[in-house]
Amino acid sequence: MRYPTLSNDGFAQLVRRRFADGVDVMAEAKWLGNGDDIDLTPIDDVAADVVRRVAVEAGGAPGRHPDDVEGEIAGPLHRVLHRLPTRVLDDPGFWRFLSLGDLWAFVRWRERSTFDGGEPSKYLKYVDGKNPAECVLMRTYLRGAIAEEAGDHALAAVIPQATDLWRSHILRVRTASAPEVAKALLRSQRDDRMPTPVLREFAKRLNRTWTNVVLHTYDDEEADRLIQELREA
Question: At 158, phi and psi to the nearest 5?
């Protein structure tokens, strides 16, 4: 399978040109691999729906919190991308291509204050797939993947305004690799939300648990019990 990718060389300049809609992203892409070209149609279909949502949220009246929209998009994005070969999903250049392509409107809207600041050192991390917890599309995809592994895509959006929970306490730490624990945490936070300071102290206790326990092996009941015990500690 051949797929499009964007090199890191000259990428910062390419992003600046994208601000002015002066880039034919497909023409800038390099195609890697062998065989048939990847079918981008399902991705284009999701992108069209996402762009419509963003247009509504950005259109005048105060919209919903951007994290809530990211959570809703996570499931559809994961569904169309998870079928791709691992080598494609592991290529930061593929995420660069997606970020500057039809999903650019969402990426820029999601982190609009940083992009509007115009400082490459601050906004490039949101379009470069080298950092899964920061790249907007990659972290959205992973959010959907974690929710799916936990048994329900809806978990990606079940908690409103959950940026800190997802980015700091799931995606950036080992909890992302333990679906049952992630699911238990999400359900617990949904039912009885810890304020940010309490959540951060809880997260420290959870992260320390990995020192002595292999949390990947926990089943649903064990994970629920662990989360409750750590909340009460």
Answer: -75, -25
Q: What's the pLDDT band for 194 if we cut at 50, 70, 90? A: very high
Token code pair at residue 195:
């304020």
Residue in the structure block whose two tokens are 């419509």:
52
Q: Which residues pair with 2 in a beta bridge?
A: 33, 37
Domain range for 174: 162-233
Residues 86, 28 within the same domain: yes
CA atoms within 13 A on the CB side of 207: 13
Number of domains forming the structure of the chain: 2
What pTM does this model have?
0.92
State how far the Cα of 217 lies from the Cα of 214, in Å rounded to an integer.
Answer: 6
147's CB contacts (< 8 A; 6+ apart) are 74, 75, 78, 153, 154, 155, 156, 186
Q: Last residue of a domain, which of 122, 157, 192?
A: 157
Extract the runs of DSSP E, i.e. beta strands, from the chain.
2-5, 30-33
Q: What tens digit of pLDDT does each residue of 3-40 get?
A: 999 999 999 999 999 988 778 999 999 999 999 999 99
Among 107, 127, 157, the domain boundary falls at: 157
What's residue 26's pLDDT? 95
pLDDT in tens, 162-173: 999 999 999 999
Q: What is the 3-state secondary structure (H, E, C) of 168-217?
A: HHHHCCHHHHCHHHHHHHHHHHHHCCCCHHHHHHHHHHHHHHCCCCCHHH
